[in-house]
Amino acid sequence: MWIAMGAGLIVLLVAAIQRKNTRACKGVEIEIRASGNNYFIDKDDVRRLLNATEKDYVGRPLKDFRLAKMENQLKGNVWVSKANVFFDNNEVLRIKVSEREPIARIFTAGENSFYLDSNLARLPLSDEFSARVPVFTGFPNAGTKLTKSDSSLLKQIKTLSQYLVADSFWMAQIEQVDINAEGKFEMIPNIGEHVILFGDASDLEKKFHRLYVFYHEVLSKIGWNKYAAINVQYRGQVVAIKNETTNTKTGNDSSVANEQRVRQMMSWSPQQWTGGDSLSRALPNYPATRSVAPRNTVTPLKTTGANGVQQPKMTNTGKNSNPKKPVAVMPGKKETRK
């Protein structure tokens, strides 16, 4: 009896294989999964990577397809994170591609630029699309080989960038993040003529809370251009350095308008911010261009690139550029943001 059952199973298996070999592809479906609305490859790119179109596949016997090879061809593109190619029960070829997720755009000290993804992979720019992610300038290494300190800095950039993206207020307020000679972060805000001395990426939530409180309890009352630098690196306090070139009366006159802009920014959702292309679109009364020079300004990049993408401001963040004497210190409060 067992011999008969075994023979029967072999017959069924052979029959199934023969049916599969005679079946043909009935269609092709391409699906691309991307982060948000950032699509750096499209269906035409998938077809080019496979060197074929739907017409080339439909009608071909299933046995002629090398699915593993097709997946490897797709993964050869730097923007492809995952690729799955298979046939469903209806003999339709399913091609599913997942894109890498850019989390930051980085400019090196040599003015080269690339995206960083969530796996710390460096990605090239696209001629067609620009990801709406935080901008970092001054990354020290433009080469392909990273030192231990470079890798550590990229991890900090990832941590800081993900925090900014998750908070609609700070995503709107922080225009760019400069990396100084010590590998510390200095932030350029959209509102206010000051630089934020942030330090490393440790204690992010507490540092941003101290800055948030300083904005509302100090700058909103005395003027947003009163200080040239705001230092939140020290635990439990905020150190501010006076801006010697600012006209106090002008700063106070503009504080009400700036406070209104800040409150408006706080009311926006992340979806509303990502729908615009600049702060001037979100806040029509805010100047489209302005001069931010908290440091000795060096020759800036062009404001827009060849594909219309805005370039960052370039500032000198060397060791000798730090302000010397703090003139105002705000003691820290319980660091929980309401």
Please explain how this structure is put together.
With 338 residues, the protein is an alpha/beta fold. It has two domains: 23-99, membrane protein fhac (Ubiquitin-like (UB roll)); 102-331, no CATH class. The protein has ten helices and 13 strands. It has helices at residues 2-22, 43-50, 54-57, 67-75, 148-166, 168-173, 204-222, 248-267, 270-274, 279-282; strands spanning 27-33, 80-87, 92-99, 102-108, 113-117, 122-123, 135-139, 174-179, 185-189, 195-199, 227-231, 237-242, 328-331. Strands 6-5-4-7-8-9-10-11-12-13 form a ten-stranded mixed beta sheet. A three-stranded mixed beta sheet has the order 1-3-2, covered by helices on one side. A hairpin with a 5-residue loop joins strand 11 and strand 12 (237-242). Helix 7 (204-222) crosses helix 8 (248-267). It is elongated. It starts with a helix and ends in a 7-residue tail after the last strand. Mean pLDDT is 76; it is low at 248-253, 269-310 and 314-326.
- Average pLDDT figure: 76
Strands, count:
13
Which structural class best describes the helix and strand composition? alpha/beta
| Overall outline | elongated
The largest β sheet comes out as: 10 strands, mixed
Separation of termini? 76 Å
- The helicity comes to 25-40%
Tell me the number of helical segments per DSSP (H or I, 4 or more residues long). 10
User: What is the topology, as strand order, of the major beta sheet?
Assistant: 6-5-4-7-8-9-10-11-12-13
Radius of gyration of CA atoms, rounded to a whole number: 27 Å
Low-confidence stretches: 248-253, 269-310, 314-326
Number of domains: 2
